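Input sequence (127 aa), recorded before submission:
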Amino acid sequence: MNELYSEHPVMFKNNPLGFILALLLVPVLGIGLIIFLVWNLQNKASKLVVTENDVLFERGLLSKTRSEINISGIRTVTIKQTFLNRIFGTGTIELFTSGDHPEIVAVGMPDPNSVRDIIKRRQSLGN
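Predicted structure, token format:
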């Protein structure tokens, strides 16, 4: 299984204002450290992997939820980026197979446009 993309959500680039606020709260009874710890655990608990044939999204630390979609079954790839997301190269990736609700929603992923490009390139090779 050759991984073409394998990333966890990022902290600073996805929410720089939240990062700065947490940093400012570090001297206040260590509240900032708690925020950083929880935030880091949430980010490490999610992972998006794109292989040659599948997209796998895992969530959870102790118990895991895994969603796997065959690339040929993906109908639509939606990338959502705020202004700051675009500046820092992050965004939300939504993958649709059928229906109006995405099967996979990966928030805060680095370089989301590369995921769309990989999926479209793999789909064109499969046709």
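Checked by second reader. The domain at 3-126 is CATH 2.30.29 (PH-domain like).
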